[in-house]
UniProtKB/TrEMBL annotation:
Residue ranges of the TM segments: 27-45, 51-69, 102-122, 142-159, 166-186, 206-227, 248-268, 295-317, 337-357, 363-385, 397-415
Predominant subcellular localization, coarse grouping: membrane
Keyword Transport: yes
Subcellular localization: Cell inner membrane
UniProt KW keywords: Cell inner membrane, Cell membrane, Membrane, Transmembrane, Transmembrane helix, Transport
Species in which this protein is naturally found: Pseudoalteromonas obscura
Name this polypeptide is given: Aromatic amino acid transport family protein
Coiled-coil blocks: none
UniProt topology in membrane: Multi-pass membrane protein
Domain of life: Bacteria
């Protein structure tokens, strides 16, 4: 091949990589589905209870907080010298064997409790829908939870193509229902009273709201697998393409989720939101009770089912990958055997938890929250000063912004504990 032909081939390859493809769209849907879990149904109550000004400020900060943090984590995974490195490999490569294994262990324990929560939440959602909306009797909890958890894990075992197809099937109706509900509530809007905020109260409310926003939009569990796939698919263009996909994911999240949040908040008074928080029910359940609306009561479980299922798949992806990495590095077990052991152990753990039906949301949130903040915000920022491939980002304002948000999130969560 001549030099001109080689140059033309490279130019064509670069053009094909710069175009938006179905592959990119599928990953936007996957990351969106991972982020939009059961937390979205409690987000309007948690963020809206502080009043108008904290809500407005956090809405403006939501995009940079979401995009910049996940971009930093993706850059960290892609900074490895080895093309097949997952998260556990990269932390060991950059921080050494001992520190790397500790961070990998923390990463696993930031994700796994969320799977337990989703196992319980999905079982309760389906059981409630069967009893209250379909007029059926409850199935034995052992049977119902086992079928639901096994079904979700079966999708994971079907491979990347089946997983992406499942996300596409789940996310489109999720987006559609969220948008429809947001618009459906508009006639009930009551604009909140806007008064000059007390600076001390505003500062404290904003501080304590940071982790709520961070974790409601988090899709960190899927970033390692996502970054690895982009590396294999786009080669040298992986970082640029990954950043573009993450930017569009964040935009989609902010557009649909914040519209839903504002619509719910404008349909309720601060006193009603405090009442909903005290009752520990989702915003849709509370709205259905307040307006005595069977339409919302029917759509609520549907949104919860789709949101929990899609987010479960994304988090299982991260837990499975990190468990396999830990087991293969600590023992002589091969990757395929480790994968089988991990899937079986996680299935049994999630199933048992779903059967027992413990009240674990607050406890698991306290465990997962600070660890996710450290891994999503603080650790990639530290890596910028330690890893030669990342030091070009050292002087960026976005680097300091991500670090400050991470420290605020960790401190607020520890304060709440």
């Amino acid at each position: 091949m001549s030099n001109s032909q080689a140059g033309d081939s490279r130019a064509m390859a670069d053009m094909s990589h710069s175009r938006w493809t179905q592959h990119d769209t599928n990953w936007v849907l996957s990351l969106f589905g991972t982020a939009v879990g059961a937390g979205i149904l409690f987000l309007p109550i948690n963020i809206g209870i502080g009043g108008f000004w904290p809500l407005l400020i956090m809405a403006l900060l939501a995009f940079p907080m979401t995009y910049l943090a996940h971009r930093g984590l993706a850059r960290f995974v892609l900074s490895s010298k080895n093309n097949d490195s997952d998260f556990t490999d990269v932390v060991e490569e950059h921080f050494g064997a001992t520190s790397g294994r500790l961070i990998s262990l923390l990463y696993f324990f930031s994700i796994f409790p969320i799977l337990l929560i989703y196992g319980v939440g999905l079982t309760n959602t389906v059981d409630s829908f069967m009893v209250n909306q379909l007029g059926m009797e409850s199935l034995p909890r052992v049977l119902l939870s086992g079928v639901l958890v096994a079904g979700m894990i079966a999708i994971m075992l079907g491979g990347e193509k089946l997983l992406l197809r499942a996300f596409a099937i789940l996310v489109y109706p999720l987006v559609g229902v969220l948008l429809f509900l947001s618009l459906y509530l508009i006639p009930n809007w009551q604009l909140p009273a806007i008064s000059s905020p007390d600076l001390g109260s505003l500062t404290e409310t904003l501080w304590l709201s940071v982790p709520i926003v961070v974790f409601s939009f988090s899709h960190a569990a899927a970033i390692s697998s996502f970054a690895n796939t982009q590396r294999k698919h786009y080669k040298s263009e992986a970082t640029v393409k990954a950043e573009g996909i993450l930017r569009n994911t964040a935009l989609m999240l902010i557009a649909f989720v914040l519209l839903f949040v504002f619509s719910c908040i404008f349909s309720l008074t601060p006193e009603q939101m405090a009442e909903a928080k005290e009752a520990n029910v989702s915003v849709l359940s509370y709205l259905a009770n307040v307006y005595n609306n069977p339409f919302i009561a029917t759509l609520g479980p549907l949104v919860a089912f789709i949101a929990i299922t899609s987010s479960f798949l994304g988090h299982f992806l991260g837990a499975r990958e990190s468990f396999n990495g830990l087991l293969t590095k600590q023992t002589s077990i091969g990757y395929k055997a480790a994968d089988k052991i991990g899937v079986v152990l996680m299935f049994i753990s999630i199933w048992i938890c779903a059967v027992i039906n413990p009240s674990i949301l607050d406890m698991m949130g306290a465990i997962s929250g600070p660890i996710i903040a450290l891994i999503l915000f603080v650790m990639p920022t530290i890596a910028i000063y330690k890893v030669p491939a990342l030091q070009k980002y050292k002087g960026n304002l976005s680097t300091y912004f991500v670090l400050i948000v991470g420290l605020l999130a960790v401190s607020a969560l520890l304060f709440n504990m």
